[in-house]
Amino acid sequence: MELYIKYNIDMMCKVLLQQQLDKFNIDCKVTEPGYVKFKENIPMETYNKLIESLKEFGIEIVDNQKSILVQKIKNAIIEMLYADKGVQSLKISSYLSEKLGESYRTLSQVFSEVTFISIENFIILHKIERVKQLLLTENLSLTEISFMMNYSSVAYLSQQFKNITGVTPTAFQKIMKQKRYTEA
Amino acid sequence: MRPTTLHIMLADDDEDDRLFFKEAFEEVKINYRISAFNDGEQLMNHLYETNNPLPDIIFLDLNMPRKSGIECLKEIRANERLKKISVAIYSTSSSEQDIEDTFVSGANVYIKKPNDFNMLKKILSDVVHINWQYITDGLNKDSFILSL
């Protein structure tokens, strides 16, 4: 037996998409091909599952919701590192998940996926960046800086600085001073 | 501004090293494209041609015939159009003085050429990912120093 079939792709996609969305009990409507209107925001976890299930059908969400979340994480970290009162001693995972209303696991997953580095590495990188700035602009000793940035000791700060930049804080200061001198 | 592809330039007179370098990039997760040059002079001539697109990062071998890595670095930093590009110096020396001098001349990254290929892969992917952070987050390039 042979059959000839005629189909409407637009209709197919629309129905398939609506079925998938209904599966997650999401209150939304596929209003036109390739466009879905949501009644309310959905949790990140559901969103991730939705992406997974749509992938099976070759459907990809064209948006930058992830990039938006990453930007929010970055902003929260920067805000923390550049606080006037210095860095408070708090657990970064609870700080971020509380501030952004998502589990830390979700946050770190999305972060690594978009930026190619982990949240932890991002923080270290920016912390050292802040230390560099303080070393160059403020008249602070390394001890004062380590206190301000909430390092457990100066030795630990020096070590982390050296690990990240490859040079010691003192060598860094010397290099930057000479660099400015030669550029001037 | 967020570039979608990282454009990398390399100047190295050693053919094997150029090959290793390209192969080592297979680990890197970012989209990239590499343009390789056989010496510093070739690279600089290409960069001075204003029609050619500028790279995001340049890797320079320190010892090259005709124009050395340091000479290229100094020319790049003295040129208004080129001065903002990240420069990584690639050398066999690991003397503290050489490293400091290279940074003072304006290098962002100092790489001691490893003998081990896996090490090279790791180093290059670190450099590129960190440099990517500087590009995407607008970190201060002037104090971008990395020694590996």
Description:
The complex is a heterodimer of chains A (184) and B (148). Chain A is mostly helical. Chain A folds into two domains: 9-62, no CATH class; 67-183, Homeodomain-like (Arc Repressor Mutant, subunit A, Orthogonal Bundle), CATH 1.10.10. Chain A has helices at residues 9-23, 44-55, 65-81, 92-100, 104-115, 119-137, 142-148, 154-165, 169-183, and strands at residues 28-32, 35-38. The radius of gyration of chain A is 25 Å and the shape is elongated. Chain B has 148 residues and is of the alpha/beta class. The two termini of chain B are 28 Å apart. Chain B has a six-stranded parallel beta sheet with strand order 2-1-3-4-5-6, sandwiched between helices. Chain B has helices at residues 15-24, 40-48, 69-78, 96-104, 117-136, and strands at residues 6-11, 32-37, 57-61, 86-91, 109-112, 146-147. Chain B has one domain: Response regulator (Rossmann fold). The mean pLDDT of chain B is 87. The longest helix of chain B has 20 residues, at 117-136. Chain B is built from five helices and six strands. Chain A: This is Helix-turn-helix domain-containing protein. Chain A: Residues 96-175 form the HTH araC/xylS-type domain. Chain A: It comes from Flavobacterium suzhouense. Chain A: Keywords: DNA-binding, Transcription, Transcription regulation. Chain A: It holds the Pfam family HTH_18.
